[in-house]
Design a protein that fits this description.
Elements (H helix, E strand, L loop, with lengths): L8 H14 L3 H4 L5 H16 L1 H12 L5 E4 L2 H12 L7 H14 L8 E9 L5 E11 L2 E8 L2 E6 H7 L4 E5 L1 E3 L3 E3 L3 H18 L1
Antiparallel strand pairs: 1-5, 2-3, 2-6, 3-4, 4-5, 7-8
Length: 206
């Protein structure tokens, strides 16, 4: 499949079928505990990509967050990442993608450098595996927002809900510089306040 072309829904369905068929290969299937489980998860992700508008609407309803966003800016990339993840390949580009997106937020003037904070964290996945991920926290008048713009998928939700639904096991700040080496990061006191709340939630869950 040419990943430079925008896929149609038909292309996505066909790609999903090909992915499912390729899992029958005994070599790749050894990487997963269940071929049926893998095919089901890929199918679910393909459904989200095809019906992204519907899932965003449902996502806002389920999270009670009218500002929540869930869409795919690169469907081919999202499909490939879904497939690779289920096969155990670590080919994600969350560091590069989110760093570029955070820089755009600052360059555009939409957010001040000290309102944007990149974070690195570990999360527990749906299969119990520990996932390493880099994302963004943004201070707004309505509270802290969690943003992940990587691997073809954009997710934005309130940080409070993110912690309740999938609280990070570990959480650390990442610093980088844009705009004449001006650092993009929160003030230390803001980070301490947020981290204290996160620690309290994490200790209750784990």
């Amino acid at each position: 499949m040419n990943i430079n072309k925008q896929p149609t829904d038909k292309n996505i369905v066909e790609a999903s079928n090909m992915m499912a068929q390729s899992i029958q290969n005994p070599i790749t299937s050894q990487m997963q505990p269940s071929k049926l489980t893998t095919k089901r998860r890929i199918g679910e992700e393909m459904d989200k990509i095809i019906n992204a508008a519907h899932f965003q609407k449902q996502f806002r309803k389920d999270t009670n967050d009218p500002l929540a966003k869930l869409f795919y800016y690169d469907k081919n990339k999202a499909m490939k990442m879904c497939y690779d993840t289920e096969l155990g390949y670590a080919n994600g580009t969350c560091v590069k993608n989110n760093k570029e997106y955070a820089a755009k937020l600052v360059f555009s003037g939409k957010h001040r450098p000290n309102h944007v904070q990149m974070i690195k964290m570990t999360l527990e996945g749906h299969d119990g595996k520990i996932i390493y991920h880099v994302a963004i926290l943004i201070k707004t008048l309505l509270g802290i927002r969690y943003v992940s713009h990587a691997n073809g998928k954009h997710l934005e939700i309130s940080w409070d809900h993110k912690q309740k639904s999938q609280c990070p096991r570990t959480l650390e700040p990442l610093l980088f510089a844009v705009m004449n080496d001006k650092q993009v990061r929160w003030r230390k006191k803001d980070w301490r306040v947020m981290r204290k709340k996160w620690t309290a939630i994490k200790n209750k869950l784990y």
